[in-house]
Amino acid sequence: MTQVAVIGSGLMGSGIAQVTSLGGSDVTLIDTDEGALDRALAAIRSSLDRFVAKEKTTAEAAEAALARITVATDIKAAAGAGIAVEAVFERLPVKQEVFRQLSAIVSPETVLATNTSAIPITEIAAAATHPERVVGTHFFSPVPMMRLCELVRGLHTSDEALATARAFAEAAGKTCVVVNRDVAGFATTRLICALINEAARLVEDGVISAEDLDTACKLGFGHPMGPLATADLTGIDVIAHATENIYEDTADPQFFPPALLRRMVASGAIGRKSGKGFYDYSELSTGVWITSVTAGSASRGRVPAPARRRSRP
Fold first, then answer.
1. What is the structure's pLDDT at 271?
2. Half-sphere CA count of 301, side-chain side, radius 13 A
3. Chain CA centroid to CA 192, Å
4. I need a labelling partner for 85 at 20 to 30 A (CA). Which of 13, 164, 274, 311 fits?
5. What is the pLDDT of residues 209-231, one digit of tens each?
């Protein structure tokens, strides 16, 4: 796996490019926005510098990894890749357009991977000329830190495509699990969305504070991070959108985003990347509970509760 193309240079795309280049592959990072590519390269360099400072890699290895990354604004730069990884916005039409374009550019043997966390692979693959070569490679954020990659078979995904995707992810230092049935949210996203939704409902209803709920999950269940801190790290907008995708596919009320999550997205309080979410990251690195944004009592401006589970919203 010497030639890899990554389409999309956001948080996930840049992270995938970083771990892939550290694994020894040449990476072409593609985005139509030159500014986004500049920011991605700066973010990758900063991340590698932190790895060097923490002695997780050497300065020589970091420089070599950077040298293996090239950038391009034209998707045709993916033509020579052995695997092309799509990491664009989590909208089906956007992803399908990328796969239509890739199908006309790459060789018939090139594996086409999608980094979606919730959209069924079969729906994305419907836009590809050879749907059997399309596979889900769900990396976790932040990609350089998280060890898991969830591999997902679409209805037509071949054994060869899955094996190539596994080799690619393992070369990037990831441990893989395989989802054999292509359902919205796969396995991991369904689990975390169900947990975050219920956690948000408990906080919204004034049952428990966000801090205490996260502490309970860490100390009671052995989670390294509570579900609401996880939502802040991932992005509350990303979580809300993922739950919507699962709900649209399953009509299961437990996946309908709680009103609290929807209000937070509307207000721009979407987690660490905005400086505020369930916790405030503007001044303290550890975070402080924000009662003004996610209050749970009527005296603090409680938001209306959503339809409860087992009754369709």
1. 93
2. 8
3. 12
4. 274
5. 999 999 999 999 999 999 999 99
Q: What are phi and psi of 271, to 5 degrees?
A: 115, -155
Could you confirm whether domain 3-179 is CATH 3.40.50.720?
Answer: yes
Let me know how many helices (H) and strands (E) the chain has, helices first.
Answer: 11, 10
Q: Is 260:204 a contact under the CB 8 Å cutoff?
A: yes
14, 29 contact by CB (below 8 A)? yes
Buried b vs exposed e over 69-88: b needs ≥16 C-beta within 10 Å? bebbeebebbbebbbbbbbb
Q: Which pLDDT does position 2 carry in this prediction? A: 81
Cis peptide before 142 (omega within 30 of 0): yes
pLDDT band at 249 (very low <50, low <70, confident <90, very high): confident
What pLDDT is attached to residue 1?
Answer: 62
- For the record, the structure tokens of 200 come out as 């948000």
**Secondary structure in 3-state letters for 203-242:** HHCCCCCHHHHHHHHHHHHCCCCCHHHHHHHHCHHHHHHH
pLDDT tens column, 63-75: 999 999 999 999 9
Q: Evaluate whether 3-179 and 188-300 have a shared fold.
A: no
User: Which tokens go with 54?
Assistant: 């923490």
Distances (CA, A) of 229 to 215, 269, 271: 10, 13, 8
Domain ranges of the chain: 3-179, 188-300
Cβ 256 vs Cβ 313: under 8 Å: yes
Mean pLDDT of 165-191: 95
- The architecture (CATH level 2) of 188-300 comes to Orthogonal Bundle (1.10)
The overall average pLDDT reported for the chain is: 90
Look at the alpha carbons of 7, 141, 27, 106 in this order and tell me if their dihedral is positive or negative: negative
pTM exceeds 0.85, yes or no: no
Rg of the chain (C-alpha set): 20
CB-neighbour burial class of residue 43 (10 A; exposed 0-12, middle 13-18, buried 19+)? middle
